[in-house]
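$ run holo --ligand "iron/sulfur cluster" --emit tokens
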Amino acid sequence: MRPDLFDIAHYGTNKGLRMCIATNGTLVTDEICAKMKEADIKMVSLSLDGSTAEIHDNFRQCEGAFDGVIRAAETLRRNGIKFLINSSFTKRNQNDIAGTFHLAKELGATAWYMFMIVPTGRGEEIMSELVDKDDYEDILAWHFEQEKNEDDILMRPTCAPHYYRVAPQMAKAQGVDYQRRSLSFSTGGGKGCIAAQSICLIDCFGNLKPCSYFHSSVGNIKQTPFKELWFNSKVFNELRDFSKYKGKCGECEFLNVCGGCRARADAVHGDYMAEEPFCNYIPMRTRKRLEQEAAQQG
Ligand code: SF4
Ligand code: SF4
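-- output --
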């Protein structure tokens, strides 16, 4: 752990920022909780990728990791510090999504964020681990069924932009009045992909990216002012310009609420403006175009 962690937290809090800490939980003790409170940490995020030690430790490839998270959740709860739980899923643990969600609730988490892994490279190993396109849709449908009846824990899928298509579609089909609850402590929640729109990433060297899953940076804030990069970078401006989106996403009636994952498009198609590879929806314009093309050929 960085020795100046809480100095940074104090600095941010004094600047009026909402400071949060992400941890694997192993170092969370009552003493650390006291320092978190002193620095006015607004939220702690823990990673929990399975409802049993076997599943979580296998996912993390670290024996004892599960016990560390459970202990941390109990310690934070005892000290009255709010925490949320992030859970990442691939084929390896996708059958335990419901179990992980229920454990997050039992532990007293304020929120549970289900995260479908975003590949950061095109390696075959990672690609073969990713949840299948059709399963993806089923998992998002499951999430909606949980969320629509949930009054307790806040929940949302992270970096699964097509949930912003699935949820309204399902609500409409079921005649349900579905209102997303506000997650006031974190960004997003109102739109699918928000890279370069309401978030970005500055790494520890000062490199700026649309989000943490993008390969390349658009510049370094130590050399170019942040404002200039944010407003003038080609990549950032393209991501905000929906007329430049390609493939099905470019034709989709849900584009402005979803947008597809640009990092996934980049990893799979080598083009961050290409269509989201893990969405099986056929937009109306695409359908019409395909019908017209088929009629012309026939
Ligand atoms: S086609 Fe693209 S914009 Fe439309 S719902 Fe799928 S991912 Fe979202
Ligand atoms: S590109 Fe968008 S949806 Fe994909 S990981 Fe980044 S912020 Fe999330």
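-- notes --
Residues 133-148 form the longest helix (16 residues).
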